[in-house]
Write a structure and sequence with these properties.
With about 325 residues, this protein is mainly alpha-helical. It folds into 2 domains: about 10-115, Orthogonal Bundle (DNA polymerase, domain 1); about 130-270, Intergrase catalytic core (hpI Integrase, Chain A, Orthogonal Bundle), CATH 1.10.443. Helices cover about 50% and strands about 0% of the residues. The protein is built from 14 helices and 2 strands, in the order αααααααββααααααα. It has helices at about 10-25, 30-45, 55-70, 85-105, 130-140, 160-175, 175-180, 215-230, 250-265, 270-285, 290-295, 305-310, 315-325, 325-330; strands at about 195, 210-215. A two-stranded antiparallel sheet has the order 1-2. It is globular and about 75 Å long.
Length: about 325
């Protein structure tokens, strides 16, 4: 039964209750962390006021502040304003928060009076074949060394086999950085190429939804070559990719690796998620269908897949007509 909160229930305590509710609901740690960050930002702007005193004008002023006056603190520095997509994400977080407050305390939902901020999808540019080849080459050798007392030489990188296996796995599967980082040796069937992205937090999947993806022959060969050099290469519970001191590669280490190789290869905007874009667009251009791609990427809706389809110049409507059982079976 809904209960009305005390008139003095502050926004900070309501936020704690909301996060506990969402934790019990089974949201991923990444989603919970984003909710916490966005609510902290809202609290910074509004102050720790009673929950029932928030009006639509307060939220409208907050969104205007985010767009015009807020200066985000970035690790890389710079004074770029928040992206319109980030502002939209903050709005969606507040919408979920006040929907919860409405159900929990029977309070009016102030955000219903405010339309969602519009945003443009970021431009997606897949890697070209030449860029992937350059990344593979950059992962193989160190930069040329010119000693003062001998001829110049180039050494092979100690992590060459691992890095090539990482690049090809990202390219072949379209996995997110968190998903690739969470893979164990036993998740990869090197005979069939089946890769099991595990359910829940351990699998790193967005929303905790596991799925099966596949490796081609070239990638399987690269993964096999890398694992043959490891003592735990046949241990099903061992992390698939390791960094120094045999620690599992996390998504931050993966990002730093790809950024480093991109700089070495002279490729701009080089990051792990760009391989996901490349996989999706190349898959469609090679004759793959949008519905299978949706399953391979782990998307709950076709929205992002349709965006890829527009880039790949694939007609989703025609794809559905070809796949429709009711039409094909002449029902």
């Amino acid at each position: 039964m809904n209960r009305r909160p005390p008139s003095f229930l502050p926004l900070s305590k309501a936020a704690v209750g909301f996060l506990q509710y969402k934790t019990a609901e089974g949201l991923s740690p990444n989603t919970l962390k984003r909710y916490q960050q966005f609510l902290r930002l809202w609290l910074e702007f509004a102050g720790d006021v009673p929950l029932n005193r928030i009006k639509p004008d307060d939220l409208r002023s907050f969104l205007i502040w985010l767009r015009n006056d807020y200066q985000p603190q970035r690790i890389a520095g710079g004074d770029q304003p928040l992206a319109s997509k980030t502002i939209h994400s903050i709005y969606m977080c507040l919408s979920v928060f006040y929907t919860w407050a409405n159900r929990e305390f029977d309070l009016p939902n102030p955000i219903k009076a405010i339309p969602a901020p519009k945003f443009e999808m970021a431009q997606i540019e897949p890697f070209s074949k030449e860029e992937v080849e350059a990344l593979l080459k950059a992962s193989e050798y160190c930069e040329e060394v010119q000693p003062s007392n001998r001829r110049k030489f180039i050494m092979r990188r100690a992590t060459a086999k691992r890095d090539q296996a990482v690049i090809l796995t990202l390219l072949d599967t379209g996995l997110r950085a968190s998903e690739l980082s969470a893979l164990r040796v036993g998740d990869v069937d090197q005979k069939t190429g089946r890769v099991q992205v595990r359910h829940g937090v351990p699998g790193g999947a967005k929303g905790g939804k596991g799925r099966t993806v596949f490796l081609g022959k070239a990638t399987r060969r690269a993964v096999w070559r890398y694992l043959t050099e490891r003592e735990d290469g046949e241990d099903a519970e061992a992390p698939l990719f390791l960094v120094k001191y045999d620690r599992p590669m996390n998504k931050n280490a993966l990002r730093l690796l790809i950024v480093h190789l991109g700089k070495k290869a002279g490729i701009q905007h080089c990051h792990p998620h760009r391989f996901r874009h490349t996989f999706a667009i190349t898959y469609l251009r090679s004759g793959g269908d949008v519905f299978t791609l949706q399953a391979l990427l782990g998307h709950s809706t076709l929205d992002m897949v349709q965006h890829y389809a527009r880039i790949a110049e694939i007609d989703v409507e025609q794809a559905h007509k070809r796949a429709s059982p009711a039409d094909n079976w002449r029902l």
